[in-house]
Amino acid sequence: MSQIESFPDTDAWAAAIAARLEESLAAAVIANGRAVFAGPGGTTPSPIYARLAQADIGWDRIAVTLVDERHVPETSPDSNARLIRDVLLQGPAAAARFIPLHSPAVTVDRAAALAAHALAQAGDRLDAVLLGMGEDGHICSMFPDSPTLRTLLTPTLKPTVLGVPHGRDGAAPPQERLSINLPWLISADRVVLGLKGAVKRSVFEREAEGDPATQPIAALIAAKVPLEVVWTEG
Ligand SMILES: O=C1O[C@H](COP(=O)(O)O)[C@@H](O)[C@H](O)[C@H]1O
Predict the structure, then answer these.
(1) Where are the domains of the chain?
(2) How far is the CA of 31 from the centre of ligand 1 (A)?
(3) Could you tell me whether strands 62-66 and 35-39 are parallel, antiparallel, or unpaired per DSSP bridges?
(4) Coiled coil located at which positions (predicted)?
């Protein structure tokens, strides 16, 4: 199982994660003249994004995208793009190019195809990835019991973005979603999973021992994603 690194409080935790992402993005800009970062939405990443935004790392050479998104316009409070624009793409990081996963006025599958194309144009791998995890064990929009789950977790496909239908009969997710697939994470140089709280720690420990075909955390570990798990009680 992946080691869990613990930090005493949210400030130390967010600073440690932001420093790792900054280091990988700066190294990629120096080595390749460009870099690609992908991050999550949700309630967890804001303090990390606020710190990362201040890094002096040549943001005009960096493309920023999402690991997942709801199929909603950016005006929606549920939009992960809105969080990225409001918190990460500020200060020095405002110079970065944003690649949204959602496209307005098309189906979720068409939006996914457009995002897959835009991401492939940005590069053949992600230089730094931040992940969050829901208390049901989902990362990106890889939801337990979703009909797209097994495809998203298939390690041998090419890196892409898939549309995820909303769950039936109250199952998650309540809205259509878009998600990068496991092969994008396999190809990444660095993947940091930021966890807060005792519940998420125990969910991670349980999921890490699970079935790689149906449990995203187990799939990442089995596929040898370069995963760093960084936790604070919060
Ligand atoms: O639905 C989502 O949830 C997860 C976890 O969110 P959090 O609020 O528990 O931090 C997030 O990683 C994902 O990007 C988001 O779309």
Answers:
(1) 4-232
(2) 31
(3) parallel
(4) none
Q: Is the ipTM here above 0.95?
A: yes
Instruction: Using a cut of 0.95, tell me whether the model's pTM lies above it.
Output: yes
Q: Is the CB of 134 under 6 A from ligand 1?
A: yes
- The architecture of the domain spanning 4-232 is 3-Layer(aba) Sandwich (3.40)
Two structure tokens written together for 64: 């920023």
Nearest 5°: phi and psi at 229? -105, 120
- Whether 80 contacts 68, CB under 8 Å: yes
Residue whose entry in the numeric block shows the structure tokens 């990629």:
28
Over residues 41-58, mean pLDDT: 98
| Spatial CA neighbour of 181 closest among 222, 214, 153 | 153
State the DSSP code for 180.
Answer: E
Q: Is the pLDDT of residue 2 over 90?
A: no
> 66-94 burial by CB neighbour count: b if 16+ within 10 A, else e?
bbbbbbbebeeeebbbbbbbebbbeebbe
For residues 227 and 205, what is the distance between their CA atoms, to the nearest angstrom? 14
Length of the chain: 234
- To test the pocket of ligand 1, the residue of 87, 141, 175, 229 to mutate (highest count of ligand atoms within 8 Å of its CB) is 141
